[in-house]
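User: quick one
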Amino acid sequence: MTLYDERTIQMLEAKANLLRRHVIKMTYAAQSGHPGGSLSYADIITALFFKVMRFRPQEPLWEDRDKFVLSKGHAAPVYYAALAEAGYFPVEDLLSLRKLGSYLQGHPCRMKTPGVEISTGSLGQGLSVANGMGLAAKLDRRSSRIYCLLGDGELQEGQNWEAAMLASHYKLDNVTAFVDRNKMQIDGPTEQVMSLEPLVDKWKAFGWNVIEINGHDMRQILDACEKAAGVMGRPTIIIAHTIKGKGVSFMEGAVAFHGKAPNADEYRIALRELGEKI
Amino acid sequence: MKWVYTSQRKEYANALLDIGQKRTDVVVLDADLSSSTRTSEFAKKFPERFFNVGIAEQNLMGTAAGLAVSGKTVFASTFAVFATGRCWDQIRQSIAYPNSNVKIVATHAGITVGGDGASHQALEDIALMRALPNMYVIVPADGAEAYKAVKAVAEHVGPCYVRLGRSDVPMVTTVDSPFEIGRATIIREGTDVSLVSCGQMVAVCLDAAESLQVKGISAEVVNMSTVKPLDVETLLRSVRKTGCVVTAEEHSIRSGLGSAVACVLAQQYPAPMKMVGTPDCFGESGESAELMCRYGLTAEEVSSSAEEVIRRKRT
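Assistant: Done. Structure below.
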């Protein structure tokens, strides 16, 4: 197991914080969008884009790149922020989110946004696509790894379980999925709306290697990715326990901010809490 | 007419084998119906490039999309009713919208599925696929055209839907007949009425044209094997000449080929028109030939419709 030095961890934490500030600015500028579910996996996407994944922003179609699939497409803002900070397009363009003519659509669009591998938005479809990418990498004997971010509420879509079967049947050890387990969905807590537990047992029963982590702990995220890469013959699911709206006090655990932008006051408070010097 | 019958499914299998031999980027997926869709032939020859996803059509389309955006040319097959209805949103979100290079080749389309009845008779699949941006819709007339259509969609970059039948169908083209995506062919020239059709209804229209000729009516038979993008040029040229049109399809008249033709004519060249196809209802069990009669997919229906539109022509 790699021991990550304190500087690397601090750099990643600062980057995650930067992405969170982008999310607040983007959704405030758009006056719509989904801050809650973006903030909850900000640490995960930071670890992926700034430490774990191999890719070339100047050569987006580099064939040996690792790939990221955002299955819960509504959490696009932090994905775009990561792509911009990684160099796929100018950071200034982030504020065009959801505006007419922008290449930053409300939900990810492969045909418009550099770095977006597949269009998503209708829930429950990303894992199947990630599996297809995993099969292709195996056929081509490439070492590319495929990362898929699933929402927890999204797991209520049956297609996920069709995909779960396929990934273990075809031994897709190059596919690693995260569940952003923030335990909230639009109509309330997942366990009230449609219970998902016992979630670990479900994935185990489908033949997956299951790892549970605190999805806001950078070291745990990096360790889990490293472990996943070392598992042969099975896909890995990382169930990341997270807090919806993480980093902004009044958004944390608040269903209201699933799909609502901050107002002017909330905007200022949120940025201050995230360390922006105003 | 005395027809020679050919199998579209067999030609699909042949085309896949030929393409698979030449191109290693071609992969084939099926959802537990490979022995019926005949993708099993490809599976036998190229097992490493064939993936059975089990009885899971949504996952079929999603997995196909993932392979396609990774540079593969993907054929995904199952029965037409499942290939379009069971996973329409997956096709919309993961294939059509991102322009994934997936060829959905569906078999067992239409009423001639026969004994399985309404649950398995896709009479809405053209409508469902035609509604999607980026999606091409091809309904080959016979076995030879099925072979050519499959080869053509493999060369086209972008999503395509190819609709094939279960039963053997009359051979109305030859191996040498031209085939091009988006290009209709005039199979029989005429001057009094245009009979525009696709799939095995092309043969029915040729039968109708024969019987109309006995009555002194000259019918032009247009094989509109590409329903989308529609060959507007050939359609308008024919209807400008004849002044009236009958469409015929083994599909609901709501939003199929007839609707596509009406959409063009209503806006560009209004002409007397009738649509032959199944009405707004589900099918039922029966023999293929019996069902074709019961739902009015016959040469008699096409002929009487032709006579009616001719009468309605403005003099």
